[in-house]
UniProtKB/TrEMBL annotation, chain A:
It comes from the Bacteria. The chain crosses the membrane at residues 15-32. Keywords: Membrane, Transmembrane, Transmembrane helix. It comes from Bradyrhizobium uaiense. This is Cbb3-type cytochrome c oxidase subunit 3. InterPro entries: Cbb3-typ_cyt_oxidase_comp (IPR008621).
Automatic annotation (TrEMBL), chain B:
The chain crosses the membrane at residues 12-30, 36-59, 80-102, 122-143, 155-178, 190-212, 224-248, 268-290, 299-318, 338-361, 373-394, 414-434, 446-464, 498-520. It comes from the Bacteria. Residues 14-540 form the Cytochrome oxidase subunit I profile domain. Pathway: Energy metabolism; oxidative phosphorylation. It catalyses: 4 Fe(II)-[cytochrome c] + O2 + 8 H(+)(in) = 4 Fe(III)-[cytochrome c] + 2 H2O + 4 H(+)(out). Its main location: membrane. Its EC number is 7.1.1.9. This is cytochrome-c oxidase. It comes from Bradyrhizobium uaiense. Cu cation binds at residues 271, 321-322. The keyword Cell inner membrane does not apply. Binds 1 copper ion per subunit, denoted as copper B. Binds 2 heme groups per subunit, denoted as high- and low-spin.
Amino acid sequence: MIIEHAFLVGFSKSFGLFYLVALSVAAVIYAMRPSNKKRFDEAAQSILRDEAGPWR
Amino acid sequence: MIAQLTLIERQRAILISAAVALLGFLMMLAGRDDPMGAHGALIFVASILMIFRIGGSYYAPPPSDDRLRHYYDDPSKVGIVISMMWVIVGLGVGDWVAWQLVNPDLTFGTGWSSFGRLRPVHTTSVIFGFGGNALIATSFYVLQRTSRARLPDQVSPWFVLFGYNLFCLLAVTGYMMGITQSKEYAEPEWYTDIWLVVVWVTYFILYLRTLARRKEPHIYVSNWYYMAFILVVAILHIVNNLAVPVSLGHAKSYSAFSGVQDAMTQWWYGHNAVAFFLTAGFLGMMYYFLPMRAGRPIYSYRMSIISFWGITFFYMWAGSHHLHYTALPQWVQTLGMTFSLMLLIPSWASAGNVLLTLNGAWDKVRDDATLRFMMVAGVFYGLATFEGSFMAIRSVNSLSHYTDWTVGHVHVGALGWVAMITFGSIYACVPWLWKRERMYSPKLVEAHFWLALAGTVIYIFAMWNSGIIQGLMWRTYNDSGTLAYSFVDTLVAMHPYYIARAVGGLLFLIGGCLGAYNIWKTIAVPGVTEEHASDLPQPALAGALNAAAE
């Protein structure tokens, strides 16, 4: 199969653009959602909690 | 070390070593008329030594089940020690080649000691030897503690660690024998590459297996970065090294790509090696050791997530900025340039996170050189990523490309960011791992810090000056429209900066040696306090103790 240069350019400029924008929007929504705040605050604190060894 | 392994694990370890020995023997036979045969012998001898090492303790009493109540830290300890050995080799060879640029006669007159062969020995030793071992060692440490789960078995971590070091050894000895693919940061030939794939896939599976055992529902952000590092490096390594060997008995191979495709694949690899080897993994380190050492959580966990996805999305497309003004299509160059500029956002989010986490704890930064290593690393990370985005702009690149400015930029990242965060993390980690109250000598940590900082600043200022002068001389025309300066004129102009650079490198090397000595003494001198009750360090204590020891 030979992939033409023009096809690759077109693909990058259309699909490539939109899927990166969509991924970025999804990442920001995930990070900024108010309902995730508690989980993230806990995660940030969790490493400082001493739990004396592995649980398994 | 071996006594910690159960009988079945000792048997497995011997079996793996025997299989590798057999492979080495076959390589020795097949490559007897080629430098590859010497590598076969090296693999064979290394595996046989390993079998003897395990065999020597084979009949030691089996470990008690008590071991399962603690994290499995032996591979991390060994990894840190090996990492410090590599840094001395890597910085030493680096400074040697720096002096070769001052005085080209500083070789032994033999092929192996020429600049062209020693330079990749330097880059591989510091990036893969020092950085890679530190990443493997700290990733095991961080992974277990953030997941609150022990590594699932005791053989595969050793396979990853020793297998990886065999790769590094094959790489650097190969360069000195003249074995190279001539691809930057991907110099090792096909059989060494295949070996790294085996080791790396084992590493990835081990990471996933441990994560699957975790207690916390949320995976801590350090693990995201470490995982990105492992997964993406695997992808990059496999694709860029697709090649066909001349024969199974020859070291030489030919790339599956040719011409501009080869160049693009190489720099897609090369720039993502910077992104995922030299950035993502070390950010994983930073997001664990900085909060632990400062005794306070990361300033914004959300920002760490956004910068994680920013880095993974954007970096993938930035590689083509290495190929401005080449046969590469113009739009691909522009694409790389644009993504490089966008990269400033996630990069500065991370650098800002470092400084904002420390905001309110500056007294600790003042008193504790270990924390200061991490703080300065954050600053240099911000500086290096700003400079990188700037240099990716086509018109800036027309001045900076092929000059020492590039070399300076690489070392802002490598010395200022990567090495500083690694030394900081190692200084934090060593007392925790070996159950000591603090490092053997906080004064030596302090001395190391100032040597490292002075060395870095001297190095990068020398290269900025040298690079810009060089770039300007190359583009200066006289009245008749021809070049005003000959190549030799530029060399004469650069000479003083080369001396300064080599001196800066020497300071950095001396700092590294002090660090290795300090770590060695910390391990060798028995601890002053009782065993810590838990495996987890007491973060807030560390800085206070160092201050008290002053």
